# Entry
Amino acid sequence: MTDPLYETVIDGGKHWSFTARRGTLLTLTDRAGGANVGMLFYNPQNPLERYNAPDTLKCQQTFRLTRGHCLYSDMGRIFCSIVADTVGWHDTVAGNSNKALVAERWGTRTYQDYRNDWTQNGHDAFLVEAGKYGLGRRDLAANVNWFSKVAPAADGALHFDSANSSGGSSVDLRFEMDTLVLLHTCPHPMHPPGPYPRKPVALQFGKADPVAPDDYCLNLRPENGRGFKNNELYHLCSTETGAHTC
# Structure
């Protein structure tokens, strides 16, 4: 991204949320290496429509996310596309850390006692952000873990690769529809014991180029073409208030 319209840095163990408008380009950068960014997606006009990990993986015949992949809603529409990626593997199967896991692995450090050095967990971080939009525990779904790699071994066991992302690694997301984004920078649930990982992540927002007929994400899989068509119909029937006429 040559000229970002807005940029910020989220320290490790923190959370944030925002609505990305259609046509927004978001660049996530792992500043120090070893970061994890948990992320969930919702339709801000209808939060019952949210990211669907199983459909995202099976329709693109993949176990990991990287350049060319689209992230689908449970209505068959595309929230965003991965238009660039220097990492090569992002996890969307291992889930999220919770309070008990973080306490067992890194101890209990409350905000009241430790302020910004407390040990937050991904589940509660999502709940804090979700509550700002009237969402709660029942609205959480399987999330993406950007920069994290979980791969199966020959026996089927899943293994976490702590060296998957190096400092300066980045991934670019092009939003194909207005999308409510919840995110946190808390540890991946399979991160090994040791110091609580506080890995900062930079976010840069800009304007994406229009989707061209030869777009790599559009043409990666036939299913992606149908997903983009579903988005076209959705936007054709949308009004300025978010209501739909067809």
About this structure: Residues 6-236 form one domain. The two ends are 36 Å apart (CA to CA). The first strand starts at residue 6 and ends at 10.
